[in-house]
Design brief:
The active site is at 78 (nucleophile), 165, 167. The protein has 522 residues and is an alpha/beta fold. It has helices at 12-21, 35-40, 79-87, 174-185, 194-209, 223-236, 254-266, 276-283, 289-317, 336-341, 377-386, 391-394, 414-433, 487-500; strands spanning 2-6, 26-30, 45-48, 74-77, 91-93, 99-107, 120-127, 130-133, 139-143, 151-154, 159-162, 215-219, 240-246, 269-274, 329-331, 367-369, 408-409, 445-448, 453-457, 460-469, 472-473, 481-482, 504-509. It folds into three domains: 2-185, Rossmann fold (3-Layer(aba) Sandwich); 194-394, Rossmann fold, CATH 3.40.50; 407-509, GMP Synthetase, Chain A, domain 3 (2-Layer Sandwich). Bound molecules: xanthosine-5'-monophosphate (XMP).
């Protein structure tokens, strides 16, 4: 385990991912965690992240000197580098000359940390203060025109640092520097592989659920719930029941795909509940987005609760389950970024659902099983592949719980859903044909159901609806940019939609980034 101490920069998650790319498991901890508590976790190494502040700023986060006395290898980056230098008796000066962005660096004596790196290369910098003198016992490895000490190491005490950000892609050879520290200086072993992750999680889940516990999992059609279910299925077999609520707001072919591909790949016990009528009745006459979301969430809970009873009744009748038995465990596809953001640790938790799956209520008395709690999205996909889930499922784009219900601007009706389903299927098909699925984060198609415009088709006037194409690129859906999908692909999508979906006579493109726009329209 490598601990990444977060000094409040947005870089900590990226650092943790890079450490894992070097096949060493890592977790993020806040800089406010006492050193003793960090050491209790027996880390193989500790990395101090960058941070927004100067070490001289009032209230700047402090590094406790004990950290360097414990014999645990430590690597400082940017702010962490300066804090380390200061704490160990080096000199950090406010030179007034800052470096931001791509900066040439000169390797003067590579040592272990910068071994095999070109003498001159470019790195990503973002700092005002700089280290003037390294602490005693350290070798200075590199410099820039403005920073005499841009990297140092003390291989005896296994301490090292760089002024730059090795974790960002703009830094040349960044991953190599990370690996030199982790493997060559700290002596970590690269054993964090997908096979090990799956085995470890399976073991942990067996322990949590016990010999005869029963678990239930709501499949949403998304990657996370499918992979979480597959891991739990591997751990406890058919004591897991998956429930897929078909609310009629799914995309074309989606329900069939879950029923066919997911079951084929996992052998999971899947109960499909056809609740289209119930959802559409509840949504009749509603066009306010928040009201739609609430209704969908509420109906989901009703269906889910009824399903639990329906699943158990026949098993109790058949005598395989005792009277009064409960589905005590609820599987959720919570990911590590959610855990970090809510300030939680990475262990198992008994807290109630975070409304991840269709907004389950607080009074559902389940213990949560969260097999993906320590994983990033890209790792979840690799685990999915490892478990044999089909690529179409593992690489599919995120899709919101309320489904197409929040992509119809106006009232949701079956006719409108059918129209949108056709247009959406064409857009997705053409994106796949162009080989762009993995470059685009999401490609919503939005039906402006209450808007009409005049068009002409053949010899006739048309008066149809517009759709909006909303392709975006993103890393985490927190921010996004409109995707520059090639004109030829957009042209094919537009031509096909207006030709094949008679109710649609206009196709428009949304070129708003997030912020200020959101990805979905409602
Ligand atoms: P926005 O529209 O806020 O969406 O930019 C950010 C991401 O979240 C997805 N999304 C949802 N996912 N339930 C979900 O499971 C929801 O109610 C929901 N609303 C938005 C959206 O598709 C995007 O990936």
């Amino acid at each position: 385990l490598v601990l990444v101490v977060d000094f409040g920069a947005q870089y900590a998650q990226l650092i943790a991912r890079r450490v894992r790319e070097a096949r060493v498991y890592s977790e993020i901890v806040p800089h406010t965690m006492p050193v003793a508590e960090m050491l209790e976790r027996r880390p193989a190494a500790i990395i101090l992240s960058g941070g927004p502040s100067s070490v001289y700023a009032p209230g700047a986060p402090h590094v406790d000197g004990d950290l360097f006395e414990a014999g645990v290898p430590v690597f400082g980056m940017c702010y962490g580098f300066q804090a380390m230098a200061q704490s160990l008796g080096g000199e950090v000066a406010r030179t007034g000359s800052s470096e931001y962005g791509r900066t040439p660096v000169t390797v003067t004596a590579p040592g272990t940390l910068l071994a095999d790196l070109p003498a001159a290369h470019r790195v990503w910098m973002s700092h005002g203060d700089s280290v003037q003198t390294a602490p005693a016992g350290f070798d200075v490895l590199a410099s820039t025109t403005k920073t005499p000490v841009a990297a140092f190491e003390d291989t005896e005490r296994r301490l090292a640092g760089v002024q730059w950000h090795p974790e960002v892609l703009h830094t040349e050879h960044g991953q190599k520097v990370m690996e030199h520290f982790l493997l060559d200086i700290a002596g970590c072993r690269p054993t964090w592989t997908m096979v090990n992750i799956v085995e470890e999680q399976v073991e942990r889940i067996r322990e949590q659920i016990g010999e005869d516990g029963l678990a239930i999992c709501a499949l949403s059609g998304g990657v996370d719930s499918a992979v979480a279910a597959a891991v739990v299925q591997r751990a406890i077999g058919d004591r897991l029941t998956c429930v897929y609520v078909d609310h009629g707001l799914m995309r074309k072919g989606e329900s069939e795909q879950i029923e066919r591909d997911f079951v084929a790949a996992t052998g999971a016990d899947l109960v499909v509940v056809d609740a289209e009528e119930q959802f559409l009745d509840a949504l009749a006459g509603v066009s306010d987005p928040e009201t739609k979301r609430k209704i969908i969430g509420r109906e989901f809970i009703r269906v889910f609760e009824a399903a639990e009873a329906d699943i158990l009744a026949p098993k109790i009748a058949a005598g395989s389950h005792a009277e009064g038995v409960k589905m005590a465990f609820l599987v959720q596809g919570t990911l590590y970024p959610d855990v970090v953001e809510s300030g939680g640790g990475a262990g198992t938790s008994n807290i109630k659902s975070h409304h991840n799956v269709g907004g389950l209520p607080d009074d559902l008395e389940f213990e949560l099983v969260e097999p993906l709690r320590t994983l990033f999205k890209d790792e979840v996909r690799l685990v999915g592949e490892q478990l044999g889930l089909p690529a179409e499922l593992v690489w599919r784009h995120p899709f919101p719980g309320p489904g197409l219900g929040i992509r119809i601007i106006g009232e949701v009706t079956r006719e409108r859903l059918d129209i949108l389903r056709e247009a959406d299927a064409i857009a997705r098909e053409e994106l796949t044909r162009a080989g762009l699925d993995r470059d685009i984060w999401q490609f919503p198609v939005v039906l402006l159901a209450d808007v009409r415009s005049v068009g002409v088709q053949g010899d006739g006037r048309t008066y149809g609806h517009p759709v909006v194409l909303r392709p975006v690129t993103s890393e985490d859906a927190m921010t996004a940019d409109w995707a520059r999908v090639p004109y030829e692909v957009l042209e094919t999508v537009s031509t096909r939609i207006t030709n094949e979906v008679p109710e649609i006579n206009r196709v428009t493109l949304d070129i708003t980034s997030k912020p200020p726009g959101t990805i979905e329209w409602e």
